[in-house]
Design brief:
Strand content: 5-15%
Helix content: 40-55%
Strand order of the largest sheet: 3-2-1-4-7-6-5
Order of helices and strands: HEEEHHHEHHEHEEHEHEHHEHEEHHH
């Protein structure tokens, strides 16, 4: 068994340390061994994970969750009630002595038909899953070897949908898919061992890169602050507290999205839950920042905070040809920069698959208010 766990840790670190496949604390992995599921604990980054980063789950108890009935409404009260109940049952499915919190996708990992499962949020793959023609193109190039899941609330709702789709394929005599592609999210791949998983991911990557018409331009570079430093720092502390840090970036791929508010929508909106968790529910576009961007930031940033219940981590300053990044501390700021660069790369790749398709506001608000993702965000910092 230890050899299998070593394989799980090895492949988790392999993909987790490569920003093409996963960034910040995104993605999760698992291994089934008899009646035990080893699944990544929430908030543990794949890049550095060890055995302590996995939670042992009782598969019998996980299976029993499917016998329960939860509220299925989409109104705020029903959603909140359902998620509390599911989380309680998930935590109760841990093996004795386990104290860590399992990934919200633990139920899904358990029902998937492979011993080893590697769920990632690859930049190139999300160029497809976050694109208007993504579903059509995926069906054309992969046929029945892929399963496309439309935009769906993660956790229990996603697991239930995939469970039903797998059962339907089985009833029609179709084999399990190699790739489960999640719109505006990522992909699930599994296999008997890590070599099979690697082979599938390589096939997926090679096919998609052959279809890409334009690679992303270089990432925006760090630059001097566009206005008086003290005023900007005071504005950052107003929104993010006394330890707030700021950074100004400009150039590269970012230039394409500063000309108009319409062009900026791939940044003022959100591609995936990761972008919301680590860089907020979209950038703030300051159309008129003039000679006092700090004052403009405070003015419009307050309205943004009232709308979303949190402050904007990315402030686009078209008059200054760049973006101001802000966060509560240096680690959080580094994640904001990572996710901004990732959003720019994903946007570039979507051009090859019909153009960008953004998360709708209901879904963004679900992630913003979901306790599970707030927990993941806290763990990341």
């Amino acid at each position: 068994m230890q050899e299998n766990l070593d394989d799980l840790i090895s492949i988790s670190r392999e993909y987790g340390s490569d920003s093409r496949w996963v960034i910040a604390g995104g993605g999760n992995t698992s291994l089934k061994s008899g009646d035990i599921l080893y699944v990544k604990a929430s908030g543990f980054p794949l890049a550095t994970i060890d055995q302590e980063g996995f939670v042992r789950m009782d598969r019998t108890k996980l299976a029993a969750i499917w016998e329960k009935t939860y509220p299925d409404g989409e109104d705020k009260a029903s959603v909140a009630h359902r998620e509390r109940l599911v989380l309680a049952d998930m935590m109760a499915s841990r093996m004795p002595g386990e104290e860590r919190r399992p990934s919200v996708e633990a139920q899904l990992h358990d029902l998937l038909p492979w011993p080893l499962v590697v769920h990632l949020h690859p930049t190139l793959v999300n160029g497809l899953t976050c694109a208007l023609d993504g579903e059509t193109i995926a069906a054309e190039i992969f046929g029945d070897s892929q399963m496309w899941i439309e935009m769906t609330d993660p956790g229990y709702v996603l697991a239930k949908k995939i469970r039903n789709r797998l059962a339907d394929k089985s009833s029609r005599g179709l084999s399990n898919p190699d790739f489960i592609l999640l719109a505006n999210h990522g992909v699930f791949v599994g296999g008997r061992d890590r070599d099979e998983v690697r082979t599938k991911y390589k096939q997926l990557d090679q096919k998609l890169i052959s279809l890409v018409r334009r690679l992303p331009d270089k990432a925006p570079a760090d630059a001097p602050l566009p206005a008086e430093t003290k005023a900007l720092e005071m504005a950052a502390r107003r929104f993010f507290g006394d330890q707030a840090e700021i950074l100004f970036v400009r150039g590269g791929e970012l230039d394409r999205f500063l000309t108009t508010a319409e062009n900026a929508r791939v940044l003022t909106g959100c591609f995936t839950p990761d972008h919301i968790v680590y860089a907020g529910p979209g950038a703030l576009y300051l159309e008129e920042s003039g000679n006092d961007p700090a004052a403009a930031w405070i003015r419009d940033g307050q309205e943004y905070a009232e709308r979303w219940g949190k402050s904007a981590n990315v402030v686009l300053l078209p008059e200054h040809s760049g973006a101001l990044l802000a966060a509560a501390d240096g680690k959080a700021l580094a994640n904001v920069k990572l996710l901004l660069n990732n959003a720019l790369d994903v946007a570039a790749y979507t051009e090859s698959f019909g153009g960008p398709a953004m998360l709708d506001e209901r879904f963004v608000r679900f992630i913003v208010e979901w306790e599970v993702e707030n927990y993941r965000s806290r763990m990341a910092t």
